[in-house]
Amino acid sequence: MIIARGVAIEAGIRRLLSDASFSLQAGDKVGLVGPNGAGKTTLLRTLAGRREAAEGHIARSGVIGYLSQEAALQQLEDDRVTALERILMARDIGLLERRMEDVRLEMERATGADRDRLIRRFSRIEDEFTARGGYVAKAEAKRFGSSLGIGNEELDQLVVTMSGGQRRRVELARILFAETETLLLDEPTNHLDLDAKAWLMGYLDEYKGGLLVVSHDLPLLDKSITSVIALDHGSAEHFRGNYSYYVAERDRRREQRIRERKHQDEKIARLEEGIRRFKGSTEKMAKRARSWETRVAKLKAARTEVGAKAKRVSLKFPQPRPSGRTPLKAHGLAKAFDDNVVFVDVDVDIDRGERMIIMGLNGAGKTTLLRILAGVETSDLGDVALGHAVSLGYYAQEHEQIISGTTVLDHMRAVSDEPDSMLRTLLGHFLLADKIEQDAGTLSGGEKTKLALAQLVVGRHNVLLLDEPTNNLDPQAKEALLDALMMYEGTLILVSHDAEFVEDIVPDRAILMPDGATSYYDESMLDLVSLA
Questions:
Q1: Can you name the residues that pair with 16 across neighbouring β-strands?
Q2: What is the pLDDT of residue 356?
Q3: What pLDDT, on the 0 to 100 scale, is given for residue 397?
Q4: Is the peptide bond preceding residue 514 cis, with omega within 30 degrees of 0?
């Protein structure tokens, strides 16, 4: 259970939310909505106890599970932790199994009295593991993993060698496995395929605890949510019903406020006309005019706030100067992380102006290949060559190019020599004008995406490498990105699990990972995009 009273939250010097009060009880299923930057992620982190509220009080009870929007994990105590052990750690079982395995390996090397001592130690740890329901829980953890698209091989894989999408699914499985009484989920469907999304929707439908979820996956909200909290312009407004009802009711309330405001403004205008007409006439009428002035001041103070209509992201990639006929070529690429071989002997050959999508299941090496092509990671074998006059721009799904402690404007200065006035104007198109001097590390996930895209725009690149660019974007910003890419005449290499987005982009060719086979793209491949 979570109870918030008079809560205010801030990001840097900017106040995101003031005087918010609500409760999350068992059985409540609440969608937290609002434009990028409204404070959804910051509020979730605050409710989870990961940061302090600027004002107000938050009371918590029971076990709370919190899924962060970021794919990066906190520093693990042991780099040898596998995905299955990470999930089991939610019930303090994972470390016990690790200790059992360590003792078993010691037993194989020991002899005599040392071996007898290790056998007794192994027996004590196994008894504790069994008493905590370890073997039953292990099977249950595997079921959670399988439901979220984590295969048996992945469960045995070290977490530190996993891709961002794999790590995030492991974290979601760990949180759901933890037997929580309250769930705080920030974009839980990111990196999930269609089957995993369907399973998660069913799980949330049956979940008995309190649920507060941020998601741009509107079907999830419609299926699993019974009420909505909308954040906008520093306030929280409550709506009963699912997301579709919220959208209709939000518009109805706005129209009602507009009518009320129109009526109030007409009344004020009539009184002000009377004041101008009688103020200089007889003493009696002048006295009445002065009383009207007091009344007008009260009416103005009590006027209904309509709220400005949501601003829209304006995104356009400048047409770059042409590159050579073959802007990028790679031969014989191979990559492994310790014993985990990701891919071997992959070739990439793309023509100027072509649109290529890298496809494959989670963990097949899509992001790793893109990072190698971008030059931010090295391959174990093979080489990458850039063609004539190539300017390469890379968008990373985990926002590693966004540096905490550096302002938004300084991020733009780092990639462009354009004057500050031009950079400020461009940031305004991305709805970041009021965050120019803010620490970029405090931006929301959607705002970090917009900043990274703004850096690409100002770079005027003729080759774009984009890794899950629609993650964390609200629907309008996603539409703006799609429109900009449709008009872009440069070369595009894309990784995306967003089938609708890929369908509109219409790639020319596809690379199927981990084999690296290249083929012409057709609509039948959309099913594989959804499984990515």
A1: none
A2: 96
A3: 82
A4: yes
Q: Is residue 71 scored above 70 in pLDDT?
A: no
The total number of residues shown for the chain amounts to: 532
The radius of gyration of the chain's CA atoms, rounded to the nearest angstrom, is: 28
pLDDT band at 390 (very low <50, low <70, confident <90, very high): very high
> Which tens digit of pLDDT belongs to each residue from 230-255?
998 888 988 988 888 888 887 787 77
* Token representation of residue 5: 């009273």
Q: Do residues 337 and 363 make contact, with C-beta atoms less than 8 angstroms apart? A: no
- Which position has the token pair 């963990």? 363
Asked if residue 344 has pLDDT above 90, the reply is yes
Whether domain 328-531 has CATH 3.40.50.2300: the reply is no
12 conformational bin, left if phi > 0, alpha if psi -120 to 50, beta if neither: left
- The whole-angstrom separation of Cα 309 and Cα 330 is 48
- Closest CA relative to residue 165, chosen from 379, 468, 516, 477: 468
Domain boundaries of the chain, sorted by first residue: 74-180, 328-531
Per-residue pLDDT at 350: 95
- For residues 399 and 200, give the distance between their C-alpha atoms in angstroms, rounded to a whole number: 26
Assigned token pair, 432: 């970041």
Tokens representing residue 161 in the block: 């060698």
Distance CA 49, CA 124 (A): 36
Q: Which of 360, 382, 381, 336 is nearest to 519 (CA)?
A: 360
* Of residues 185, 191, 180, the one with CA closest to residue 150: 191
Task: Write the CB contacts of 276 (distance below 8 Å, at least 6 apart in sequence).
Answer: none
Q: What percent of the chain has pLDDT over 70?
A: 95
What is the secondary structure of 316-354 as a DSSP string? -PPPPPP--SS-EEEEEEEEEETTEEEEEEEEEEE-TT-
Identify the pLDDT of residue 471. 83
Phi and psi based region of residue 210 (left: phi greater than 0; alpha: psi -120 to 50; beta: remaining)? beta
Q: Note the pLDDT of residue 286.
A: 72
Sheet strands side by side (includes 463-467): 392-395, 463-467, 491-495, 355-359, 509-512, 517-520
This prediction's pTM: 0.69
Distance CA 345, CA 333 (A): 5
For 119, list phi and psi in degrees, rounded to 5.
-65, -45
Instruction: Let me know: does 28 contact 136? Beta carbons within 8 Å.
Output: no
- H-helix or E-strand spanning residue 55: strand 55-60
Report the pLDDT averaged over residues 140-146. 91
| Sequential DSSP letters for 126-149 | HHHHHHTTHHHHHHHHHHHHHHTT
Q: How would residue 304 be classed by pLDDT, with cut points 50, 70 and 90? A: low
Read off the pLDDT of each residue in 177-190 and give the average, rounded to a whole number. 91
pLDDT of residue 292: 75
Q: How many angstroms separate the CA atoms of 59 and 63, rounded?
A: 13
